[in-house]
Amino acid sequence: MFRPKFLLALGMALALAMTLGVGSASAVTFPLTLNTPNSQLSGTTGPYAIVTATQQNSTTVRFTFTPQGSYGFVDGGSVALNINCDPSHITVSNFDTSVFTANVSTGGQNNLDGFGNFNVNLNEKNSANPVTTPVTFDVSCSDGLTVATSLIANANGELAGAHIFAPSVGKTGFVADGPAAVPEPSTLAIAGLGALSFVGYGLRRRLKK
To answer: How far apart are CA 162 and CA 39, in angstroms?
Structure first.
């Protein structure tokens, strides 16, 4: 049988490999469902919006926020994303400039109440007329951007959010969703190989004795 010290070392090595691997390489699966409201939307139920993404080129991803049911997007933080890119390298384009303005920020001014700061927002110009049709826009990162790695959780663990108008109750409020990122296959493979290497090392030592 394996010695207790060897088993302990193996367990620690595997845990470390999995922790480091998942943290450095994770993928986001679309579509995302914005289903979690803040207290301002009490009395309403989701889903409030669906977020999809499509690859345009090696540096650009197109995002579409589609409101669900009778909900609409409104006012500041109408739709928001936390893009996995240095904000100074982000460009937002191909949105309806007659309806929205775009804002890219490193923090503070892009706060969605209860869900933290997002580094990319589209803000509606006329808050008296909620947008009840899909909102599409492109986000480019000069360092490169792919659908699977396009978003990263903000300090509150959220990936995307929106400012929602709920006509049934005459209220506006914020919603968000930050589903757990899933490990990429390459990450799991690396972790598995690391564990197998330790097992092989232990077996070799036992055979030499």
So the answer is: 14
pTM passes above 0.70 = yes
CA distance 117 to 123: 14
52 burial via Cβ count (<10 Å: 0-12, 13-18, 19+): middle
For residue 127, what pLDDT is reported? 86
Q: Please, which residues have CB within 8 angstroms of residue 207's CB and are 6 or more apart in sequence?
A: none
Q: Please check whether residue 151 is in contact with residue 90, taking contact to mean a CB–CB distance below 8 angstroms.
A: no
- Asked if 178 and 81 count as a contact pair (C-beta separation under 8 A), the reply is no
Within 13 Å and on the Cβ side, how many CA atoms surround 140? Answer: 10
The sign of the dihedral angle between the CA atoms of 96, 99, 103, 108 is negative
Q: Which helix (H) or strand (E) holds 137?
A: strand 135-141
Residue pair 163/123 in contact by the 8 Å Cβ criterion = no
Cα distance between the two ends of the chain: 13
State what percent of residues in the chain have pLDDT above 90. Answer: 66
In whole angstroms, give the CA distance from residue 130 to residue 12: 53
For 156-175, the DSSP string reads TS-SEEEEEEETTTTEEEEE
Q: Where are the domains of the chain?
A: 4-21+186-208, 27-182
pLDDT tens-digit map of 123-157: 999 988 999 999 999 999 999 999 999 999 999 99
